[in-house]
Batch of 4 targets.
Target 1
Amino acid sequence: MQVAGITTPIEVYVASRERKFRINELLIIDDPNQGPLVGEVVDASSYNRFIPLSVEHAFSDAHVVESLKHLGYSIDEDEINIAKVKLMSETSFPVTTGSAVRLPAFDEVKSFLMKGSREYGLLLGEIKNTEETAKTMDENLKGLFYMFSEGKAKKTVNVPFILDLRSFHQYPHIGIFGGSGSGKSFGMRVILEELMRHQIPTVVLDPHYEMDFSSSQEQIEEAENFKRHFCKFQIGEHIGVDFLNLSKRDLLSLLSAVSPLSEAMSSAVEVLHRRGDTYLSFSSRLEDLAQALELGRSRIENALKQGLEPQDMERFKRMKELLENYQNIPLPSVQGISWRLRRLQISGLFSHDIKPVKEAMLQGKLAVIQGPIWLLQVFSTYLLSNIYRQRRDYKDGELRGQAQGDYFPPFVIATDEAHNFAPKGRDTAPKGIITEIAQEGRKYGVFLVLATQRPTLLDETVTAQLNTKIIFRTVRGSDITTIAEETDIKPEEARRLPYLPSGDAFVSSPLFGRTVAIRVRFPYTSSPHTINPIDEIKNHRLDSDEKLLSLISPHLPIYAANFVRAVEDINKDSDEKYEVRTLKEALDALVEKGRLKKQKSPLGDIYM
Amino acid sequence: MLEMDTSLKKRFEEAAAALKARLEKKPDRDFLRKTIVEKGAGSFLECKEMDSDMLASIVEKGGVAGVDGSTNSKGGIFPYVVTLQQALARHCNREEEILLSDAFSPLLFEKDLSEDDYRQYIKKNLSALEANAAILAVEEFKPRVLLIDGSLVRFKIEASQQWERLKQKALEHETLLVGVVEGISTGIISSTLEDAMPHFSYRAMDWEMLFGLLEMGEVLEMAPGLFKEGLRTCFARFSYDPKPIGIDMPEEQYAFLNQVKDLLFTLTPKNGRGIPLWLDIIDNKVRITDAMMEGLLNACLGEDYAEYIMAKRSKRAI
């Protein structure tokens, strides 16, 4: 390998007859004047001068090439491999043409490949095309995890890509970009596994119900078990909002998450909600007011004049009072607030609180919050503001020298579909708190891991704060443009984005000062969604066939003459509700699949 | 220049018309083919592609090698020139090459040379160099077939000593010598057929007569005695290119023409210019490019001297 052609202080071409180059591999150029220079292959090509790409030339004549091979000459031997190599740091002079080029030993390029130690780092995957360099690596860095290739899990043979945990203090937030099927979810899973391994308190907002870490990957024998390191909470079932602690703003955003509030409704909530309200007190106030507005002042007064049961008396008095205070609020507004509140209540939101989440975090666990996206949006607003405030108060107190309140640890917030939580050009409930954390979280040790398939739709302030970006396959032009603007990704790499294989990614991090091409490791746990929907249909059908077969087999053979009896018997033994027609269809279907035999007889068909 | 001088335009048209008239006078293809056969000037043979067994039998007997040379002169106006020559021989089956090279300048000669003499010398020297490379190739590779880029006739004329040795060695080692001629410059056909085609009065070159005359994969074998003593020549078309090439063989080995023509046909890309690919590969390897000459000149002479002898002409900016 040697430097060929015209060189610059930034970029050179390296040619080799024997060795093929791979994009992103590191090479060392032994410049006689400037010493060893480290460069990265940004473009690789091969050329055979006897097989030019031209319509006028005839060297694609396969027969002749084949005949030459029989005579002992293989045209492939005349191939020349060319690599475009970008130097890691600019040199004072252009590189000397003809300088020898070699593969680096690990120690020579360690500073470019590895920041931080294995003990304090997230092992995200391997750096692509570093096998040769990895051979000279310390033993304790070799084969740290598994890679998935050609349907099998194999130990990595490349240099591991380690994201230094301590660097979070400097570069706190991570963005994960990539289209569906690009390996983005796998990447997220790997990051979360690593966070669990280091017992970093983490909150995961999981709109897809996929963040479960209880089933280990079957292909890995020594798969780590994360069962004890995470808790899964469903909003309304395990956790919820403590109504008593709701501020007016929280309540407004909760209600508007159900369905947007009109201006009249918002101001009505502002007036009607009082400090110290419970769900009960607030909702009954709404109901009373609604009824009062419906009845009108005179009817309430009339009712009060007539003798009433003491209980009703009390109510009518309340209604009268409410009417006097709030007679300007239109009835539809009150009713609108009322149904929104009821919907939240039915979802179970108000019957729980966020204590379990905080407990999990204090134990250094990963708390997965699941729920439909609309509920997740509101709930996360409440949850994130709450825990962020708690952490901030603790830290501020500590800084002021008056440590007050209980300890609350630094933590990580992770979510997929981040553009739903902090969208560009549109307000959502959680946007405020996410922007705040993006801008100030570093000070308090609160870090974000935001994944999205549409970086263009993510709020720009947030995007700008994502220091480390992991970019998977992206096809959309506008997203590629956004990525190119927001990262130090090179044009050659941006061009490769639409074609990255699933699981391959570019990591752009200020820590490395360049884009590193990685392949994400094979997660130790598997997502509940990985079963192919087509397989699912097939399996389901097989299952139901089995079920039906086991149901009818005690009643075989079934004669057409006593079909009605058979239907009755089968229905009695099970909860099914077959009719003669449907059972006959089901039996015929089984006959078609060869699971059952059908015979003609003078008395009609016999199924056996 | 857009408005062409009318008198110039007229003269140009006349000249072009002369070329065209000559083409139009060319006898009809079928007539020509018939006449060639009838007058006993030659006969048409068909080529067959060799299969891998046949190729394997050639490999068994020693395989195929090729020889080609290249020459390049650089510098200023005569005699401020340096000439570099190379001849390369390579065997299909072997890594090592035989590379002979020579460099000289008119200034090296004791007596004054004219530019024409120098040109003659260059030609002769290259032939000798190639012939020597061929001799070494026969001795070292002992190939069954040695393809030589260019006619064997020029060896016989320009480097007769080496040619005799080459022939002797080739017969000794049973190596078939085959000259592959890209640019045919003979005019045998029209002189032989002069009587049969009175209206075709001028002496046409052979390539002109044969242009489009041969089918793809066809060889025109010329009757003995029409060529230089000791050599036999035939014309062949191995690709879709209608211009034929020439094949030279020593009289003594002419019996193997059949095998040789099939081999050449097999090794020639059908869409190419009709030269066996192996010779093209060697040509590519041996070629001395201008850039290479310039680099050598700058390196050996120093850029200042190189600049000093450089002709003004080569500095044209537009």
Target 2
Amino acid sequence: MSDYIVEAIKNGVWETLRMTAYASLYAYIVGLPVGVILYATAKGRLLQNRPVNIVIGVITDIMRSLPFLILLVLLIPFTRWVTGSSIGTTAAIVPLTVGAIPIVARMVEASLCEVQPGIIEAATSMGASPLHIILHFILPEAAPSLLQGAAINVATVLGYSAMAGVIGGGGLGAIALQYGYYRYQKDVLWTTVILLVIMVMVIQGAGGLLAKIRRKA
Amino acid sequence: METVNETDNLITNDGSDAVFELDRVSKIYRNEGKDFTALRDVSFTIREGEIFGIIGMSGAGKSTLVRTLNRLTDVTSGSVRYFGRDLAELKARELRKVRRSIAMIFQGFNLLQQRTVIKNVEQPLRIAGVGRRERKEIARQMLEVVGLSEKEKEYPARLSGGQRQRVAIARALAANPKVLLCDEATSALDPKITGEILELLQKINREQKLTIVIITHEMSVVERICDRVAIIDDGNLAEVGDVKEVFRAPKSRAAKKLVFPSNPYDPSDENSRLIRIAFDGLSAKEPFIADLVATTGQKVNILSANTKSVGGVGYGQMVLELPPDEKDRAVVVEYFRSKGLAISEVDE
């Protein structure tokens, strides 16, 4: 591999990490509250509210079922409006975030559902408000599971970020596509793939470890 | 500690000593067109400072009943009054305030698994808006009361069942409640640990004048610490009264069933009848079986006999098989009656 390709790969690793980190962060800022709402408004839960639950649930599932590549293209006008451009690493963060929000929301919801109903009953019997119960009982109890879910979500975002290369999103995906696929440079292709695999494994491992440390029972 | 409880302004004290007054409480669960009646016209009063037992077989409705006391369950009809106030009339915010004065412990402990023991005990204080430092101080006092001071930094998963229930009791007491509801609190524990937990509850009842309501399916729990007991059978109140009285002379079928669990008495003759004799310390001193044989010549078969201490008074009971012949039987019954013994027939 020539020097400039090595340089490009180094740069690509950095870009991929940047896209993944920002998109994951933003996706959680929106997705975590959405997941909490999905959980709390479901039947038999603290703030049971059928209309809210159905509307948010349907929107979440529609967004989740769109293939990411289609979402990338559909969101181009929105991306341009938000970042002023539809090309580049910063621009790619927008569709990555939008694509990850519903996945995060459902994952959060699933984690919260694992919390023992007895904990909620105990909190209710203590005279806690629904918000207090969510913040001080349900979320702390679900923390290890939320961390484990986060590891899976971040790894998914990383995988999606490679696809962003298709629309000029930069990162390892773009390098794999340009040098590995269009120019038949198998060594570049495999290097990027191996790097992506390593990154996913590191994220998964770190998330799992954090969850294990946090989990007290 | 006084600042924690703000319920006083919500309570209308009419001078009676009733904490809870249940008036014809019914609960019907409607599920896809099928109705299930969990409680039917249940009325009784729980008085301040007593340990009140609610006993029944599993599925009798006692868990639903205890949940009407802090409105974790809404009643379908009838009313539950707490210090004179109908719980059903309370708005969400008022209800939350009232609940802070009605602590509850559970069979499954329901502790936060991801929080340390002391953080668990602090929870009710946090809800009441008590500051961090005061919270910790009170929580430490509570852990001392239940004898777990050295475990404050442990996580519940590392504690034994008995210790977990102690933490739950410390948590329940933290916000200085007026009542403690115990929902099968000892059912997951072995007999020795159950004894220790009951002793602790009794100590708290005496020292802090805390009213305690105990839900259980075990007669031994009621015997051991309750002052009065309500027997729930298939959603109905079968009997309510002093524990001593219910034990001495159970009136309802459900009460008899609980007082002699799983009637194991097997008469030798199909035609013979079983009776139960309950006697207190006084009559227990007389050798009345021997006297019976000596004076009437009739023989009875002793199927079971034991003595128990109920509420500090020793008393005994004996299950006898009477002679198959009706006349002989009458003689025996007459003899026991003349001795002033309380006898009742054993249902089969």
Target 3
Amino acid sequence: MGRYVARRLLQMIPVFIGSTFIIFFMMYALPGDPVRAMMGDQAYDPAVVASIKKDLGLDQPIIQQYVTYMGNLVQGDFGTQIASGRPIADIIADAFPVTIRLTIFAFTFVSLVGIGLGIVAGLKPDTLRDRGLLTLTLFLVSMPSFVLGFLLQYLLAFQWKVTDPTVTDSENWGQLMLPAIVLASLSLAYVARLTRTSIAENLRSDYMRTAVAKGLPRRRIIGVHLMRNSLIPVVTFLGIEVGNLMTGAIVTEGIFNVRGIGVEIYEALSRREGATVVGIASLMVLIYLAASLIVDLLYAVLDPRIRYA
Amino acid sequence: MRGAKSAKWVAIATAVALGATACGGSDGDSGNKGTKGGKPEGYVSIDVGEPQKPLIPADTNESNGSYVIQSLFTQLLDFDGDGNIVYTNAESVESADSKTWTVKLNKGWKFHNGEDVTAKSYVDAWNWYANIKNNQQNSFWFQDIKGYDDVHPEKGDPKAETMSGLKIVDDHTFTIELKYTMPYFNYKLGYTTWAPLPKVFYDDPKAFGQKPVGNGPYTFEKWDHKKLIQVKANPDYKGPNKAANKGVQFKAYTTLEAAYKDVVSGNLDMIRQVGPTDLPKYKQDLGDGAIEQPYAAIQTLTPAFYSKTFKDIDPKVLQGLSMAIDRDTITKTVLNNTRTPAKSFTPPGVKGNQDLDTDVFTYNPEKAKKLIEEGGGVPGNKFTVQYNTDGGHKEWVTAVCESIRKNTGVECVGDPKPDFATDLEARDNDQVKGMYRGGWVADYPVNANFMKELYHTTAEANNGRFSNKEIDALMNEADKAKSLDESVKAFQEVEKKLVEHMPAIPLWYYRINGGHGKNVDNVNVDFHGDLEVWAVTTK
Amino acid sequence: MPDKTVEKVATATGEPIPAVATDAGPAATGKPRSLWSDAWHDLRRNPLFLVSAVLIVFLLVMAIWPSLFTSASPRDVENLARDFRQPPQWGHVFGRDWLGFDGQGRSIYARIVYGARASITVGVGVTVCVTILGTIVGMIAGYFGGWIDTLLSRMTDIFLGIPFLLGALVVLNTFEKRSVWVVILALAFLGWTQIARVARGAVITIKQADYVVAAKALGASTTRILMRHILPNALAPIIVVATIALGGYIAAEATLSFLGIGLTEPTVSWGGDVSTGRELLRIAPHVLIIPSVMVSITVLSFLMFGDAVRNALDPKLR
């Protein structure tokens, strides 16, 4: 097990370097100069632009910039923003907790409601409630988050006036509820469907028939035998979803004005603050990699047939 | 891009008087609303977002930062609502030949840390700002001063630390020698960039930018990044724009809608711009608190005169295109009444604004078609309008294009750039394919600012690369005028000539649609559309 | 987002997925039928399939021949002062003012009709590109194994590591003019990994099958083995993933256009119209809601279609 983890960790290094380099390279290829952009549309002095770029090392070749950047990153230095001169670590520290909060909120919602609905439907496949649930999830899946977001905003905030249209305080759990539900909806639908299919499939399996034949209590059959086997794919899916939820937050945060990394990254992109974008992206890549490792390990715990050497 | 603060000096007297009575009248209930929203009693709040850069006067040119800088720093002079000079930190700024200017400072002024404001505070600061090594964004503002090229060479290290044109006479007097004559140079001094700096600044400019010490009507209290900046009234302030309230909170909002809601509910005192969603009903919601006023800014369609389409274009065609735009309907519908149709190249509120005797800015589809035909038409019968999609320009560009297309048959399409950075890069590098959306907010309220800086062959912001020897000569001549009035008149003549050459198609002037809540009073707008926070009183 | 659908099939370890095609033997009826005819037999009787197929045909016709549905142009403004943000006239079915007018005084109905082309072209285009690219990479990795497999798998990992939306934001920002083709290529560039994984898994299973071993023993060339034996048998799981992903790509295009980094003017796109209408949510909600609903209907049609195809091709789910 230890060796497996070590190998996986080693494998992550090239993946991390590769994906951050791609993002770094793409930022570099973007048209538009961050230093020039900050001067606005009135008169400015090209000599100042050149001088600032020189001081920031933005006039060097890309490979060198990348190496310098990664060198600093490894030492925990995210660099500073071009315009504000603030350390990027500060900016991330301000915005990340908000997004993490939103993600945790959404993730809990996905897990509880998604699996719950899936179980309800899966235990009685092909009944009316199963069909109803499948239809509902199909509708959820077919609504991109901006559609659902605006629809809920319109109905809840403007028609029925039960909530505020946008979030005014990003640290308020109550206000994050609506964005979290919107963020969760797509994953929720997938989780519900996956759970349902998995349970329906396992219900027909031999070991279930054996358990029933042995006369085990229904509670035990479902709680232990069925659940443990059925939830394996669901757990896998949930693990990967963490990363997807975090990026999905870019859209949701935009609609509801939550001041998280989504808004931050969007702003940084339009101001060409390359280091900020790459910094946040690197963190996301890391979270994604960590999540997939944890999922694989969990997999071994849940499924006794899998043993990592 | 945002500049000097100005003051409606006539309004102040009344403001102070009214404020006094208003305060007295509502003393009874001020106790329970004092702490609302974490705001100290007597403070006023306004929606001003996170400044883009550290708070150093010569490094700030966007409106959020300018608001804060203006509250913390006071420069030599300022303007009233008619664009006339009002002295603040200076006792006088005078020149006999428009080339050498003598500045006399008011005595007894102090920085917030107790240091005296002297001639040296100004001269040292300006030398520091102008030095290329310090990378100050507004350093080019000092380019008219003799010796600027030594501290700010186009390439390489500076040859000197100080500009030879700046000379200290005594503690409260210094002289500025320019490279050439410029009758309206003193007007430039109203821009925030010309603020003085205390000695502590030079110890650690970086730390200063996070916690500035100024000489203005307010002293710095705290900066909670992306949430709030708080400043406190400076009781020892000597200037005419002394704070009428106890302090100001600049609060960052993510949307105009959220800020507006807070104004209506009383959690925020002032909003600079009401969002499109709320525009149709903000006058009802806010009543007397609604503010609608034009200010000194203009939007234009500027042809790139180096582009295939507009190279050697007959100005008649541009006049025709101008007449094909239904400015009235577009401002009323698509722009939600946030603009006033333009009638000249200079907006109202700047010295020398005039109504031009022409119908080029009046909607007239028949004449538009005729003029375009006479002028030989638009090459390819098609052109593009470049704009940035992150600035809310898409709507009006589309509307203007459709108006032209419908009325003249000339195909007009938007050329969107994903963001401002890309838009500017294309302009700087002469890569605009047809026209671009131009915009200009007054740096100082003189008509020269709207012509010399935009249409002179050598002007930095002349991105359309309009070049006309006759116009250049007229402008140079106007700059040599003996007095400001003569210079303004000469530029008015230039403006009349511009109609014949059409370096740009003026579309409309900006209008501020803001407002304030019931807890405050005396909210006025200055010439470039900023709310004057210092004059605001609490009830 | 499109990524999600795969994860259902593939495990995080990149383990081979049970290649569904291989256990598709003769159906229980006794009459030997191929997987494909079996699936077709199934589909014809599936109401989900029939409904979605009708909707899709409808959308396709709209995309190919928009003038069949309306004579109005999506760009023309007839009378700005009169039409500005006018609400729908539900009685005037298929009329210029049927669905009202947007903030420019343009007919929303016309924009809906003309917007179909962009949405569907992107959806189908990305799916085709991703399928081709992913299948090639997956087949090569799965068939040759060894260092080629390691290299390609790591490359897949790298692309999987870039969050889809973030990647799209950055890639698309590099283009100033984003036509349908740019958006297709950008999404394909980021999205090929899922098919690659599925294809690789399928190929690994199939290459051990007797008929492949036999073909090899008979001296068939690699190309022949790949094209004649492996590809046809690996196709079913690939098609399953691809059809389901199609809906996802349409949603992705709309989302990106909504974020302002998808299709640019003058291409008419529903997502773009939603984004221009977002400020009108309170004052003229129809400007935003009608294109939103249209996006959902389209995605729903393709998802139902994909669902039906999967049920037919994947016997395990029956």
Target 4
Amino acid sequence: MRSARDIARAVAAREITAESVTRESLGVIDRDNARLNAFTQVFHDFALAQARRVDADIASGKPAGPLAGVPIALKDNICLSHGKTTCASRLLEHYHSPFDATAARKLIDAGAVIVGKANLDEYAMGSSTEHSIFGPTRNPHDLSRVPGGSSGGSAAAVAGGMVPIAIGSDTGGSIRQPAAFCGLVGVKPTYGRVSRFGLVAYASSLDQIGPLARDCADAALVLDVLCGKDEHDATSADLPGPNALGTLDEPVPELVLGVPTQAWSPANHAGVTSALKNTIAACQKLGAKIVDIDLPLSDYAVAAYYIVAPAEASSNLARFDGVRYGRRAQGTKDLTDMLCKSRREGFGPEVRKRIMLGTHVLSSGYYDAYYTTALKVRRRVKDDFDTAFRAGCHAVLMPTTPGPAFMIGEKIGDALAMYMEDVYTVGINLAGLPALSIPAGSVAADGDGGGAVTLPIGVQLVGQPFEESELMRIARMLECSREYAAGRAGGV
Amino acid sequence: MHEHPISIEHVRKIAALSRLAITDDEAAAYQHDLAKVLGYIDRLSRLDLSGVEPLVNVGDVRDRTRADEPGPTLPTRSLLDMAPESFEGFVKIPKVQGDGGGA
């Protein structure tokens, strides 16, 4: 499949039609979705209608949008007034949103064609896309492995060549970790950069919407469309857009990157350490200065995250009561019985566990010991990054994940092992910083049926608040470097 | 930090606060699962956090006012259509208090 840039350019120039691009995308989805399970719903008629409207607008002389005719998959926790918004949950299995999320509306207004909704861990709670009523999504690089999560359907849809772009959400790593597992570029913008209006809330102080794409330029193109102040989201920042695409090919002069000592954890897979070394070597070849930094609180970020996120979730998910929308249990004796049974039937085990955990850490007698403590750790996590930036680092470089994609079923029974997947990513959500994962290498592994497969490895760049464009320029410098490309292709 | 594991009675209490129906088997499973996560979280007690100001939200969170002018809202019909049960323009719910005062 062509890049999103190429599609938008060719559709605008009337070299190809949005309809033909959409038909091609739907064809790949129809052929491969049974295998990958990337989509919860595919919108054949709606997608073609959108595409024809884009073509008609261009034919009538209206200016083409920056995403004219680009097929896009939307994570199924982002509201769209077409189809259902399920969050991969029994509770919202039949829920029709009466409105579009601001992010979805911006994409459509830019000429994008929403071809379907992407699978996820229920309510975005998970790191594998196994916690879904639609069943697990499979990694296109090896069908016996997870694509990561919670935006695993989004990642598999792009890596599987179904769409050039997918939209995910990231509360503790849910865009970056799937991007790393599937060999993609995944961007979590600064908290406040993209409106959360219409994103079903998991942890409101951490959630951000962002793109998954095959290269930096496509990610930058979509990021520029998504960003902006929204009167429906009081936390959205009133700042000019990042102009990430327009500045992408301007190298950052006298680049300084900080690499935390914690990035060299003995718990890392050898391929991750090797990918990080290769990336550092490529950066040095580009003239970048690499400095050692210390993020001493990073060993505590996962613990703080599993207080803050469930606390916010227990409050946010209180709205799912079987009263105004969603599943309602039948044959109940009174209101409380109806609430308790509807929620018991509607939520899956991981979601119920996080609600229970959140209720516990917020309950009387435990609040200060857990919640206040976690918020103090959150301050220190942010301070650690601020110190690195004040010392002159343009960005922090570290792994995205401790290892490559794991097997379906491997970690589902061990919650702590699953939570440790996010060891390099959650601190960045606590600090609200922009970060992205780019492909940095690969490892050989045993695949489905015993044959050898190649699994991608990602590295992560973390930037200063609202410096997405600089972050993407650094990523682009790496993407263009010959040494880096060789490291990616050659594996470890 | 408090001692773990947490009691079955406490598990039942937080399930009730969470408005989640729970069986005896599930209560035992939650006791085990929550104790495991809370045991991990206990590492935070190693940190000296005296004098650190809690950080609730990194964003620019302030009260924002807007002009008090009517704007478009979703039609009543589309909101009622989302409800599992509605009656003459209202969302319908079961009795607040059951026959045996079950709440």
